[in-house]
Amino acid sequence: MTNEKNPLGLKKIHHVEFYVGNAKQAEFYYRNAFGFSRVAYSGLETENRETTSYVLRQNRVNFVFTTPLNENHEAADHIRLHGDGVKDIAFQVEDADYAFNEAVKRGAKVAIEPYDWKDEHGSVRRAAVKTYGDTIHSFISYNTNNGHNYSGPFLPGFTEQNVAGDDVGIVLVDHIVGNVELGKMNYWCDYYRDVMGFERYITFDDKDISTEYSALMSIVMSDGGHNIKFPINEPAEGKGGKSQIQEYIDYYKSAGVQHVALLCKDVMHTVQKLQDNGVEFLRVPDAYYEELPSRVGPIDEDIDELKRLGILVDRDDEGYLLQIFTKPVEDRPTVFYEILQRKGCKGFGKGNFKALFVSIEEEQRRRGNL
Ligand code: FE2
User: Fold this and answer.
1) For a FRET experiment, which of 44, 48, 109, 154 has its CA 20 to 30 Å from that of 218?
2) Distance from the CA of 148 to the center of ligand 1, in angstroms?
3) Residue 229 alpha carbon to ligand 1 centre in Å
């Protein structure tokens, strides 16, 4: 419903689309390493002469991996500049035309004017606006009163495919973090406030999250229902080294999505499966687990098991969360994933930042980027 708190009528994150150099291999990686299933496909065999896209689904998470088939497609420029990365955080909305017009009226820049997107299963309306870097937000609506209705497996142009992955228990996108340029954090927070009606949910400053080098500042923007959470990070001055946020921007060549946090119900089970599948995670020093009981108090999980798997714990007034971060999943040190389970806690793991950043700096040092 559109109202002051949800002026665009956002319903949920419909999907996240990545532009990648080789979608066939990305599909194989996310299916075999992360346990997604391939549910839909678009490419030469479906009369798509421009791109190939694979839709991967795990419970309520939909990822689309798209590669250009021609050098003059905009995805080719995107990949040349950024490497593999997130192009589109797409929302399902009540009415794409309304969401688009309202967003533009509120100051968003146009990416794609509203159009009918159709195939033999019906049509949807789609439009898009720009956000940080070359990232966009699509607005997609079904069943509008203009008679649009869609019954296909995903979106128009996609054919159904059923190649099951071994589900690892990833359920939902919890939050998606954007890294923006030095001095631009407030600009983009204002954008989410003014355009989307989001509120400031939590702020972290460099006291929370600075180590000797890897300082950053972060504000979490969220919709009124706290279903969609977009933390925005900017680099902060470290003591002589390079902020991890600046390292990202130097390699992504602009602002962009830093990590997608995937919520699961049993983090120990999920992380065990991901590790068995070869997903590489950041590790913190063993001393972290010696300090853990005094820092977070009683928890249900066995600390030796958490230590074995490398899972981190943090607590707020309402409960605790368990989280772990992958290493970047591209050769450029850019996009990575967080796997987390919430047990009442609504935070983002502030108490873990310091230990984590020491590990991230160690990786940066190995890359010669500190
Ligand atoms: Fe996160």
Assistant:
1) 109
2) 36
3) 10
Of the candidates 298, 297, 307, the residue with the CA atom closest to the CA atom of residue 268:
307
**Is 4 among the domain residues?**
no
Residue 323: give the domain boundaries.
Answer: 170-367
- C-alpha of residue 10 to centroid of ligand 1, in Å: 22
CA distance 59 to 11: 17
Q: How far is the CA of 348 from the centre of ligand 1 (A)?
A: 6
Q: What's the CA-to-centroid distance between 177 and ligand 1, angstroms? A: 7
Reply yes or no on whether the pLDDT at 306 is more than 80. yes
Q: Which of 122, 141, 163 is the last residue of a domain?
A: 163
Task: Indicate whether 3 belongs to any domain.
Answer: no
Torsion of Cα atoms, 261 then 197 then 141 then 264, to 10°: 20
Ligand 1 centre distance from Cα of residue 331 (Å)? 21
Q: For 107-150, what is each residue's pLDDT tens digit?
A: 999 999 999 999 999 999 999 999 999 999 999 999 766 677 89
* Residue pLDDT, tens place only, 34-81: 999 999 999 999 999 999 999 999 999 999 999 999 999 999 999 999
Helix (H, G, I), strand (E, B) or coil at 161: strand
CA of 300 to the centre of ligand 1 (A): 22
DSSP per-residue letters across 347-368: S--GGGHHHHHHHHHHHHHHTT
Give percent above pLDDT 70 in the chain. 95
Cα separation, 282 vs 288, in Å, equals 13
Whole-model pTM: value is 0.95
Asked if residue 1 is part of any domain, the answer here is no
Cα(263) to centroid of ligand 1, in Å? Answer: 10
User: Domains in the chain: how many in total?
Assistant: 2
Mean pLDDT of 84-110: 97
Domain membership flag for residue 153: yes
Distance 338 CA to ligand 1 centre (A): 6
CATH of the domain at 355: 3.10.180.10
Measure 36 CA to ligand 1 centroid, in angstroms. Answer: 20
